[in-house]
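Researcher: I'm comparing several assemblies side by side, and this is the next one on my list. It has 866 residues spread over three chains. Same procedure as the others: predict the full complex and return the structure.
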Amino acid sequence: MKILRVMRGFIRQGIQVKTTYGMAYAMRLVNVFVKMVAFYVLWSVLYESAPGAFPVSQVEMVTYGAVSVMLGEFIQWWDGPHFYIITQIRRGTITSDLVRPVYFPFQVFSRCLGESLAEFITVVFPAALVAYLVLPISLPATLTQGLYFALSLVQSYLILFGLNCLVGFIGFYTLSLRGIQHAYHGLIMLLSGAWVPLWFFPSWLRQVAEVLPFRGLFFTPLSIYIGELQGQSIAGTLLSQTVWIVILLLGVGLAWRVVHSRLVVQGG
Amino acid sequence: MAIVEVRDLVKIFRVRKRGTGPLGFLRRKTREVHAVDGISFDVEEGEIVGYIGPNGAGKSTTVKCLTGILVPTSGVVTVGGLVPWRDRIKNGRQIGVVFGQKTSLWWDVPVIDTYRLLRDIYDVPEPVFRRNLGLLDDILGLKEFQDTPVRQLSLGQRVRADLGAVMLHNPRFLFLDEPTIGLDVAAKERLRVFIANMNAATRVTVFLTTHDMSEIERLCRRIMIIDRGRLVYSGSISDAIQKYAPCSDVVVELAETPSGPVVVEGGEVVRQEGARYWIRFRRDQTTAGHLVGQLMAKYPVKDFRVDDPNVEQIVKTVYGALAPVEEAPK
Amino acid sequence: MSKVRNLRHYWRFVRIGFASQAQYGVDFFIGAFGVVLLNLVDLVLLGVLLQRFTAIGGWNIWEIVFLFSFYLAAMGLQNIFTVHLGQIEAYVQDGTLDQFLVRPSSPLIQLMGREINHGNITHVVTGVAGIVVAYGRLGLHWTFAEGVLAVVLLVCGALVLVGLVLGLCSLAFWTIRSREFLYGTLQIQEVVQHYPVHIFGRWFQVLVTGVLPFAFINYYPTLVLLGRTGEAMHPLLPWLSPLAGVLVLLGGIAVWKLGLSRYQSTGS
């Protein structure tokens, strides 16, 4: 299948780029590990000071933190489609992407997926291995829980892709991401549950977060992983992720149609 | 009296190459490269010297040792009585360096602002600065763009601005490292005129490394040829021509091709295209006139010209006479 | 090479720098907006946490805000002047460094003077604002002397960072990927900025005090200014902050000089 071949190409490229410079590679591993340890210490300290404030056990909380770091490194939410699109426009090389007989959003997707998988192989997997050996973190309780986690992870990736793509297309008009980028990243930091799980939020903030797609990025998969979400509620959250995916991907398709026609008319 | 003295200059680099494979950065091979392998020469004040050689011959390394950028492995270098790398600050005041394609000016600010900054760095007194500025404006036409930020200048203007910048402090020595790369013919000519004028007006000693033969021929009375770290030739251009390209060609076109080979005393046919013949002769053995006379007596000569060798041919001979230089794989 | 002359040159660079960064306008404000926003989000998250936990390692929210803002201001101050040091790596490789060496002026001053980043004034202002707010909320009352002390400690904190950045960037003289070392400390910097380091255990405290002295940027000065010097490994340690600033700066300059002399004997 041609798609798999293309994907393999992107993955290989990604791996090469990431490991060519041994020092850079080692530093990234160190950084990821430091981040995990930092979360571990932070949550341990907080847990010991007030165990009653947590709806989960200490192990589960620490696991949330560590897996959050790994998840973040994997989906690379601060980088991705939007920057790729903008760079291509700026450089003018977007024309070569458009000439290929592949649907543009899909090109972007496979490229980013290749990067992420390369990242997983080179950084996330080794870091996870070390983390499991060194820190007191756990795996999903049952196989089914693990499968639900995997599913929500896939959906989280798709949601992020949709969001980033839309932001990238906005960049078509502004030719720069600077203003939106900060606000966008701020929203993700705040509402995705990457750092502070949503159960700590004051109720009004929690309600806002529930309505937006960002919690599907981190909070949903992580809650499933540590078992804070069980049984029936899982179905509901997974469904809400799917709904967002549909909305966002439709949005991407629409936006692309508009942008494409504009590009064709105006040139680079 | 020589103002630049170089004795047995040696510069050895240790080059480390990565091993292959993913863990290549752990396995490394080291080897020594003798970039400059015992060079000695003198330069007199006010000379314009051309320094030529194939890529990787050690030209840049020599210049870097002369300007204080590199510390030699061994050998003695004095420029205007100073040791460049040891007296870096003092030496800096008496030299000006132009590096090929790279500008030494601030990118976003008007040229004149960079000039004022350089005035401070080089401690040029204000009246001297103003006078030099006027002089440079006459030669380079600076007023035309001196208030424009450098990034908005055309290549030709930028080169002029760089030249102005390097002369503001009346350096005794001017080092030009491949200054004409990427320039059009008009700009190259302007550069040549500039160097000649500056040399005439201020007796600045010029050290020019270049691949451009027309510059060498028109500017330098003396050239030095360096190959793989060694000085192969040092002397005047005319002597070099005599040594390395002692032959000239008489190119003659005949009205009709003769039945047999073209034979002429003192010359040898080296090439033929239809009715046109290249006849090579040694200038110290006979003259073009003698050959042409013979040809016109024996054959129906329609047209002729004389091709004398130029610097490019010398260089090709020199490069060719030595073992082939390794070309960097692209 | 007279120091006064160096300073005069640098002053002229600064003036040129002002002229060259004449893009005050939309671009600047977008950047400023981003800085303020992202730091605010950071602090909001910390606030959410501290709503439930009242204290991290014994520090309440406003003390954390003080700690965080102090780092922000010092970092902003440092960045204004040292932003161009990141170019050392590029200049070493493409030979631009040579231009600095043929002029009768300190190459370091020329390098730093090449680019002055006024944009970072936003970080300084935001940081100072945070300090002021925390000052009010904590009910502090400084005497004039204490106010001067605060400014001195802030400047010295910036000096520590300048020295560290200079030292790490100077590694470009030895290895191609020096940037990666600087990047490698990013996570540690983040940790030091957000949390009082004593919660991370003794070995970490030693790391950020003796090896990579980031703690002298905000942690120790904050201990002094909030009267918590007893929490340090040794109560006199926080008072060494000004000395640390000078020493780290000199250390950074020493690494630079060493690297430069290596460049001059081995080329690039």
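Model: For your comparison table: Residues 323-330 of chain B have pLDDT under 50 and may be disordered.
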